[in-house]
Design a protein that fits this description.
heterodimer, A: Rossmann fold, B: Rossmann fold, five-stranded mixed sheet, 14 helices, binds thiamine diphosphate, binds magnesium ion
Chain lengths: 280, 333
């Protein structure tokens, strides 16, 4: 299986992100259920991680020095599966089995069933603690590897996230980078209405984190933040990425109902047209 | 990986940790844990320990003192502690995460389910202060549900050691076992019950003897009560056997069948609710595989309370006399 082609070239990454979106939508439509909005909102960030920033070896998923990615917002599984397939962890045809009985592509990621998934997630609020543990373990081993953890903005309403935020600050985990997908929406509506999370940046700062505030769809800003975060010593880094839920497809953008709805056949056609590809 | 200087520093620390087997010694299982863990830390560099602001009580403080770099106090945040332990295991460490049993299994239950068991992570959950012998702190601090909570989880191994000697062996054994384990320990000093030649194995119960009339399947502090009950029953002409079922999951079904086939009655005895613990596990197995009369000794759908451990054991019906009464009443019928 091919090892991943990585580049910092912005045009290359934008092209990959478009392909990632197309694959996400195709697999969701095929599955008939799954999480569209939150997979699309984080697509640029996760593309930048897998196609540029992270040191990883798709042909050797357990390579000890690999950088780790924890998808704390496990419902964005289609996004994770797509980048894993496109970077060569498994054959792309497997994407057609999403959510099907017996498939390793479970509704939420299962590390026991699929190479490349570091740990099973799906119950929100737990990923950052796991990322902390990995960062502590890697530091004990004097490993150069870094740990990345993606959280949703609704997810940070979970108390455990702030226990973990405190831990990362206390243990000075500068080999850790949290990324918060600030798409403003959760299931029951806008975060602002369901349970106010603002001011987000001040919260992370207060827990002794170094923060970056970026446009989560601007590839240049994403890769710059990822590069800068690596240089921050003495604090964990959090990239607070302002995003649009359902980004890339006008009929899904900013629509709370597409949190957990898969595209219909007709919607998929519209989407593919907009994304400028039939998926090939 | 470490420099020579670090190595020698570790060596001097090691000499302060002496080896203790606890054979024949009356000791709290938490004390045996503290000592066993510190010793294990010396032998195995992969062992790391987490605690949630109770290291003095759980006795992980001993490890913390000897190996400060491999000890993580997580503060009062049990859910975060479980996740962090999971992350550490994913880098090849062998994490032991400790706090009081109710906070470990109750507060962080879903974290244990999702992060530890579903991913089948190599994390050892060793909780102290289980049962009513916690004493004066009362119900809020007395876990009577923890075995039920852990037993229901796929992948989880559940062990309830009976004394210090067995605890020491359990700790050494689970460190070498790959996968999630829950070990239930206590606060109060307990008598030594296991013979000096006893060797603990996961899933293997210890047969003191098989009785022709009744067999008492016990674990934890109730093994000692069962042994006393055996003596009292023999005076009344009742032949009682005692089995230490320290591993509740996986259950030693072979010994259970042997005991059930020979006697008229099986009694289970545990310092835990009769709902969901050892009594339930035994009943579930026997009712499907060898139906026989079963009586369960344990707390009965109730919370604990404050008091002296010995008084509480009487109040909640967890003494040798309670076992005897249950057996003789059955025999009279
Ligand atoms: C502990 C837990 N509670 C509830 C859910 C159900 N759930 C799944 S996604 C979601 C909303 C998540 O919102 P957010 O974190 O903002 O994710 P995004 O908008 O990026 O999709 C909820 C409540 C869950 N998966 N886990
Ligand atoms: Mg959101």
């Amino acid at each position: 299986m091919a090892t991943v082609t990585q580049s910092r070239d912005i045009e290359f990454l934008k092209k990959q992100a478009r392909t990632v979106r197309i694959e996400i939508l195709k697999m969701l439509a095929q599955a008939g259920s799954g999480h569209t909005g939150g997979s699309l909102s984080a697509a640029d960030i996760v593309t930048a991680l897998y196609f540029y920033k992270m040191r990883h070896r798709p042909d050797n998923p357990k390579w000890p020095e690999r950088d780790r990615f924890i998808l704390s917002k496990g419902h964005a599984a289609p996004l994770l599966y797509t980048v894993l397939a496109l970077t060569g962890y498994f054959d792309k045809s497997l994407l057609n089995t999403l959510r099907k009985t017996g498939s390793p592509l479970q509704g939420h990621p299962s590390s026991k069933m699929l190479h490349g998934v570091e740990v099973s997630t799906g119950s929100l609020g737990q990923g950052l603690s796991i990322a902390n543990g990995m960062a502590l373990g890697l530091r004990l081993d004097k490993s150069p590897a870094r740990v990345y953890c993606l959280l949703g903005d609704g997810e940070i309403q979970e108390g455990q996230v702030w226990e973990a935020a405190m831990t990362a600050g206390h243990y000075v985990l500068d080999n850790l980078c949290a990324i918060v997908d600030l798409n403003s929406l959760q299931i029951d509506g806008r975060c602002e209405d369901v349970m106010k999370i603002d001011p987000v940046a001040e919260k992370w700062k207060a827990f002794n984190w170094h923060i970056f505030e970026i446009d989560g769809h601007n590839m240049e800003e994403i890769v710059t933040a990822l590069d800068e975060a690596e240089k921050i010593k003495g604090k964990p880094s959090a990239i607070l990425a302002k995003t649009v839920k359902g980004k890339g497809v006008s009929i899904f953008e900013g629509k709370v109902e597409y949190h957990g709805l898969a595209p219909t056949k007709e919607e998929l056609e519209i989407a593919l047209k907009e994304l400028g590809g039939n998926g090939k | 990986m470490g420099s020579r200087e670090e190595k020698s520093a570790v060596n001097t620390q090691q000499s302060t940790v002496e080896s203790q087997s606890f054979a024949g010694q009356a000791v709290a299982t938490r004390d045996a844990y503290g000592a066993a863990l510190a010793e294990l830390g010396k032998r195995n560099e992969k062992v790391v320990v987490l605690d949630a602001d109770l290291s003095g009580s759980t006795k992980t403080a001993k490890f913390a003192k000897a190996f400060p770099d491999r000890f993580f106090n997580m503060g009062i945040s049990e859910q975060d502690m479980i996740g962090t332990a999971g992350g550490l295991s994913l880098t090849g460490k062998i994490p032991f995460a400790s706090t009081f049993a109710i906070f470990e299994t109750g507060r962080a239950w879903e974290q244990i389910r999702q992060t530890i068991c579903y991913s089948s992570l190599n994390v050892k959950l060793v909780a102290t202060h289980s049962g009513i012998t916690v004493g004066e702190d009362g119900a809020s601090h007395q876990a009577l549900e923890d075995v039920a909570l852990m037993r229901v989880l796929p992948q989880m191994v559940v062990i309830v050691p009976s004394d210090g000697f067995e605890t020491k062996q359990v700790i050494d054994t689970v460190a070498d076992y790959e996968g999630p384990v829950y070990v239930r320990l206590g606060r109060a000093k307990v008598p030594a019950v296991m013979p000096a030649d006893y060797k603990f194995r996961i899933g293997k119960a210890y047969k003191f003897n098989i009785g022709r009339d009744v067999n008492i399947i016990a674990n934890g502090i109730m093994v000692s009560a069962a042994l006393q009950a055996r003596e009292l029953l023999s005076k009344e002409g009742i032949d009682a056997g005692v089995i230490n079922m320290s591993t509740v999951k996986p259950l030693d079904t072979e010994i259970l069948l042997e005991a059930a086939k020979i006697s008229k009655l099986i009694v289970t005895a545990e310092e835990h609710s009769i709902i969901g613990g050892l009594g339930s596990a035994v009943s579930e197995f026997l009712s499907e595989n060898h139906p026989i009369s079963i009586k369960r000794i344990g707390t009965r759908d109730t919370f604990g309370g404050s008091g002296k451990p010995d008084e509480l054991l009487k109040l909640y019906g967890l003494t040798a006399e309670d076992i005897v009464k249950t057996v003789t009443e059955f025999m009279r019928k």
